[in-house]
Specification:
Blueprint lengths: L3 H10 L5 E4 L7 H11 L5 E5 L4 H9 L4 E4 L4 H15 L5 E4 L2 E4 L4 E4 L2 E3 L3 H12 L5 E2 H9 L7 H15 L8 E4 L3 E4 L5
Parallel strand pairs: 1-2, 2-3
Antiparallel strand pairs: 4-5, 5-6, 6-7, 8-10, 9-10
């Protein structure tokens, strides 16, 4: 691929198992290519490969829908291992997660509460999935950052607060039983039981 426009064309007209995407592309940025891919599918694994290694760049790429983010320079063995992990993830079977009247289909990425469909952004979905897989277990902000954003330190904990608040507005606001609870000084828990 010579530039972002060609990359966008290739991604739209051909089927791929996974995409490795540089952000610094001529004519059309890698971020724009990623947005085009995510407008068509949420399931295609996309690994961003970039010299931009700041936390803000990683968070922006992952929030835009990247499946993983690898900073240059990198070891080819690590790139290969990350691609194998992404491909394994893509073959996971459909799992229906439930808590009270909240239901998530991990394959179709459909979330419903009391039968009503709830539209979530990519990171909101990933965060809710992590909470549902750990239902009734208190998870720390660090655990959330490591599992949802794949960043291994807690310097961007505000991003967790923002996404939790957004999830609460969609999951809890119109229902009498709140499911997302703050455990003061520790983190969060998704539960239908009284704390």
């Amino acid at each position: 691929m010579y530039d972002g426009e060609e990359g966008a064309y290739q991604a739209e007209h051909f089927e791929y198992d996974a995409v490795i995407l540089d952000l610094m592309l001529p004519r059309l940025s890698g971020m724009e290519v990623l947005k085009g891919i995510r407008a068509r599918t949420r399931n295609l694994p996309v690994l961003i490969l970039s010299a931009r290694g700041a936390v803000e760049d990683k968070v922006a790429g992952l929030d835009a829908g990247a499946s993983d983010y690898l900073v240059k320079p990198f070891a080819f063995a690590e790139l290969s291992a990350r691609m194998r992990a992404l491909l394994r993830r893509g073959r996971e079977e459909t799992i229906i997660l439930r808590l009270a009247d909240l239901e998530m289909n991990t394959a179709t990425r459909v979330v419903r509460r009391n039968g009503n469909r709830i539209d979530l952004k990519l990171k909101e979905f990933a965060l809710l999935e992590f909470l549902m897989r750990n239902a009734r277990i208190t998870v720390t902000r660090t655990m959330i950052i490591e599992h949802v954003w794949d960043i291994h330190f807690d310097s961007v904990s505000n991003v967790v607060n923002v996404h939790i608040n957004s999830l609460r507005n969609k999951i809890d606001r119109d229902f009498p039983l709140p499911l997302i609870h703050t455990v003061r000084g520790v983190g969060y828990v998704l539960t239908d039981q009284a704390l």
